[in-house]
Amino acid sequence: MTSSDTLRVAVIGTGKMGADHVRRIQGIVSGARVSAVVDVDAERAKAVAARVDGCTAYTDPVTAMTADDVDAVLIASSGPAHEAALLAALDRDLPVLCEKPLTPDAASALRVLEAERKLGHRRVQVGFMRRYDPEYVRLKALLNTGQLGRPLMLHNRHRNAASPPFFTSEMLISDSVAHETDVTRWLLGQEITAVTVLRPRPSVNAPDGLQDPQFVVFETDGGAVADVEIFVNCGFGYQVQAEVVCERGTARIGDGHAMVTNMAGRWGGTIAQDFTDRFADAYDRELQAWADATRRGEVTGPSVWDGYAAAAVCEAGVRALTDGGRVEVELVERPGLYA
Amino acid sequence: MTSSDTLRVAVIGTGKMGADHVRRIQGIVSGARVSAVVDVDAERAKAVAARVDGCTAYTDPVTAMTADDVDAVLIASSGPAHEAALLAALDRDLPVLCEKPLTPDAASALRVLEAERKLGHRRVQVGFMRRYDPEYVRLKALLNTGQLGRPLMLHNRHRNAASPPFFTSEMLISDSVAHETDVTRWLLGQEITAVTVLRPRPSVNAPDGLQDPQFVVFETDGGAVADVEIFVNCGFGYQVQAEVVCERGTARIGDGHAMVTNMAGRWGGTIAQDFTDRFADAYDRELQAWADATRRGEVTGPSVWDGYAAAAVCEAGVRALTDGGRVEVELVERPGLYA
Amino acid sequence: MTSSDTLRVAVIGTGKMGADHVRRIQGIVSGARVSAVVDVDAERAKAVAARVDGCTAYTDPVTAMTADDVDAVLIASSGPAHEAALLAALDRDLPVLCEKPLTPDAASALRVLEAERKLGHRRVQVGFMRRYDPEYVRLKALLNTGQLGRPLMLHNRHRNAASPPFFTSEMLISDSVAHETDVTRWLLGQEITAVTVLRPRPSVNAPDGLQDPQFVVFETDGGAVADVEIFVNCGFGYQVQAEVVCERGTARIGDGHAMVTNMAGRWGGTIAQDFTDRFADAYDRELQAWADATRRGEVTGPSVWDGYAAAAVCEAGVRALTDGGRVEVELVERPGLYA
Amino acid sequence: MTSSDTLRVAVIGTGKMGADHVRRIQGIVSGARVSAVVDVDAERAKAVAARVDGCTAYTDPVTAMTADDVDAVLIASSGPAHEAALLAALDRDLPVLCEKPLTPDAASALRVLEAERKLGHRRVQVGFMRRYDPEYVRLKALLNTGQLGRPLMLHNRHRNAASPPFFTSEMLISDSVAHETDVTRWLLGQEITAVTVLRPRPSVNAPDGLQDPQFVVFETDGGAVADVEIFVNCGFGYQVQAEVVCERGTARIGDGHAMVTNMAGRWGGTIAQDFTDRFADAYDRELQAWADATRRGEVTGPSVWDGYAAAAVCEAGVRALTDGGRVEVELVERPGLYA
């Protein structure tokens, strides 16, 4: 395709996240439209397709990928279904935006890595959308200027008002801290080499048996230390903050001071209540950037390597949570494709 | 047209603002494309058109408006050229987004008002883009909830790092405070009835003879008082702030606390250096909202009445600046079309 | 006395403010003690004196001033009683700290000015305690460095949760804005030459008939413009803010960001509920500075001239409130004693 | 003594800290004066004494403690000299304010603990002055209300512009983190049971061989986790921050937003450059509170137990720094005197 053509996207998975991406591609992203939706629930797929002009509903991802009017694939199905869809897309050399996690574990991520390596060029972008959040982008840009010197430490806060019923103690690492895994690697430009997880007394507001909050400490191959407070039943809202401490100064994002009110004895502002509110812009920009790059024949976002490394760190983190102590992260050698 | 069709826009004026809108419609706005560009400078029009697929260059606005592939018009030419273009578009019943000011004075704005009134339905949206800025939108939404009670006062700050060479003392009112004129009317939902302008000693950094800063006080028909500090050679950046004081509390926007650094003995953040930086999002959202509404056959943004009222207030403001004292604003009766 | 002696103070007036000053001198100020208290209510004076070692109760200020163990006088009686006490103290050449206002009007202030001028040296300090507030002190110090260039505008906010029952529309000027009168003169180092008062629609929470809020505009002999929002029934707390706009930058105090909480969907902090909370430090420092200077035989704080000028500006302000329009301030020539 | 008498204090040690306390007692604290100063350097002691009325210079602490005009002792000599002075004061049953550290190690602190226990009542207060800082006081008061629920985590930042030449890697723990040791114990009301120290790559601005920064993690007997970033060559200033994360919300102090400027493309404020600036108020209030309580015959501040526990935690911290891994803290049983 040439960059003047509209990108025709097959969206795989029409749950909450997939349906939101359909809305985003149709109403917000310039130069792209949804030509196919896929869901094992045929009725749900049809219902979504019916609201979009020129959109066909499928139940099988591979069939959708062979349709004439599909140029690219957005994977928003459940994590365990990602690997098959990714391999099928790579088999057809189709550009992919795959929601995080790339796959649920490092071994399966490695198989996707191997498939793309064999293909010989990058086709897959992983949905670490924080790299498109305007605040994180400014922070990264400031670090890149070198004004602050080299980063030594990174403090992260990741708070949710409440966790969904199915959430487990391990998911605080593999689902939530997964974002800070990528943020740490991306902001610092370093790989994570060891993980330690501390277990504060659980909050009285956490569901019975859930280890919430947790305090995670990363060490990196560049000698930096990053910490993550993950607290998914903090009660007061959704809040994501990061402070990078460098040799000559620090920079902090996430305080969210857009509007300040004085009322009833207090000054301050509101806290976002969920990630779709806090990161709405990031998702919009992620999809626009992906569509733009794809139309130019490029992949510019987080790679399969990034998805694999995050999976490997999260696996080590879950072991550290379970066994206690410090767990080292083992990565395969980085292929030249991701240099 | 139906809402599934892509909106084909003729952009009139390809100076800095017009060219920026072309880029925005092509690269950011979903569901719209530029099919025509118009400029009295034929070479400039051709150069812009050459970078856009399926875009024709014109030197005459009316010719462009009669083209088959033009569904709507965006006017970004110089202020004095607006009236003719607006009347031509209304003559052809074409939807219009017209950059501010609607026209340079209240009398010409009234002629446009009359033309649209005769047409019998609204077609024109005026480019008061602050109504699409996320911070102003949140402020307006908060006021609409009634939590703070009724607004009593509004404090505005409007600061530019430096004014362009052609800027006159009158333009601080007619060009800069014009924004606060609309912001005041929109946030309070009231008309401005009188203007007073105070003239502090000019800054040593203002060009010789320029009355900069100025301090403007508005009174409204709802009994509110609004003040505007306009300072177009403040030196340190572009800064727009507003605080609404209501019966039970206040709300302030524009502090811009996105990223906070500690460095060299100071904490804080950077200040935007011009309006394209501060209001980039507002322009994106304005054009997306206009394209969406236009495809649905609606006009939802600031009206010709808003453009006329702003012009009338600015005329009174310029008189107050020149003559001193308090100048009353006279408006014609508001036509039912704008009720 | 020599600076090693403890300063023995007669406190005139043992109402809320006077009793608070007694507590302050006894428990907080170094190098001073209360040796006499005076109140027309003999029982109240005795009750206060009984709590302080070596303190005598009086009903007549002049008798107290002649006691052997009185080195200095603190006047905290009602405003109309100030003149007689001030003249008696000047007659005995005693150092005085006089709570604001110096006297209730410009004419009586002039009589005190004349008495001190005849005495030939300064003895009286007026209780404009904001000059001792750490934030105002930092603001003044920054202005003095010249880093920001010359001041052009000053924006003040002065908000009280609720006004006492006896408060009148005129008292918003003469009692509340009196502070900003002094702040403006002191920060800018300029005299106020004209006052305009705008009258927004009163808040539904203001007592019937009270013009609250008001918006006051000062012009100065240095060409600066200062505005004051005075709102004594804002409901949410006690809040005092000031922003000075200079040729190369601005500085703002009063945001009060000491502790930030996240709770129940909001971030932010508490707002002080009254002036004794917000300005507790300022009163402590004011009295310590007065005691220190007095023991050295000096007067370093706001002078009788400052008290007189504030009274003259407030009188003009009350006229502007009543009559509308812009009212000029007339001051007598400044005596050399206050150069 | 009765509370109406002035407290006569012997200040032991007239180095920078001791001389500052002399100035504070003489000029700021109400109800106290310096009657004796002690220094092994006789000339230095004499020079300080000469500036204070009625003050005698000594070279031997014990001799000073036996003087008729000494009611209480302030120990500001070097750490290794504390034990002897403390034991001598306890021997004479004199009230003591002892600068931190109580003594350089846990064993010597235990000996002081034992001496006070035998005496049978508390006489010693340790100089953990942060407990008197207005921001920490507000934070503690908020925690005490229970509004935020129980504390789960505490994040501390402790940054110095540059370290003195004699500073060692161990002193980052024993001298700097010593403060957070007390802050953690005091704010949470829990004992620290284990310490882990992470060692980021040292900053290029740290002196050769100094492990700076460090990242310290405390675990407590109440199940909380506290972390401390200690960075003594951060370059940009002196900055102390704390955020307590509780079951229903968080509270943060130390952002220091007193005055905000806009200048040269940046908004923000200045950062204190050393602890005497940041904690000037805390020292003033600490000494006033100590003088007030002592005159009432009470000890209300941090106890010998607090000094001992801090020493024990710091010893464990130094071991954790040296040996790596997690080191448990062993405390003796808490005597009833400190219940």
UniProtKB/TrEMBL annotation, chains A, B, C, D:
Which reaction is this enzyme known to catalyze?
Answer: myo-inositol + NAD(+) = scyllo-inosose + NADH + H(+)
State the top-level EC class: oxidoreductase
What are the UniProt keywords, alphabetically?
NAD, Oxidoreductase
Give all residue intervals belonging to the Gfo/Idh/MocA-like oxidoreductase C-terminal domain.
Answer: 140-329
The record ties this protein, via Pfam families, to: GFO_IDH_MocA, GFO_IDH_MocA_C
Quote the EC number: 1.1.1.18
Outline the extent of the Gfo/Idh/MocA-like oxidoreductase N-terminal domain.
Answer: 7-128
Q: Is Transmembrane found in the keyword set?
A: no
Which InterPro entries does the protein's record reference?
A: Gfo-Idh-MocA_inositol_DH (IPR050424), Gfo/Idh/MocA-like_OxRdtase_C (IPR004104), Gfo/Idh/MocA-like_OxRdtase_N (IPR000683), MI/DCI_dehydrogenase (IPR023794), NAD(P)-bd_dom_sf (IPR036291)
Q: Which family does it belong to?
A: Belongs to the Gfo/Idh/MocA family.
| Complexes and interactors | Homotetramer.
Summary of the function given for this chain in its UniProt record? Involved in the oxidation of myo-inositol (MI) to 2-keto-myo-inositol (2KMI or 2-inosose).
Name of protein: Inositol 2-dehydrogenase
- Organism of origin: Streptomyces justiciae
Ranked from the top, the taxonomy reads: Bacteria, Bacillati, Actinomycetota, Actinomycetes, Kitasatosporales
Q: Which gene encodes it?
A: iolG
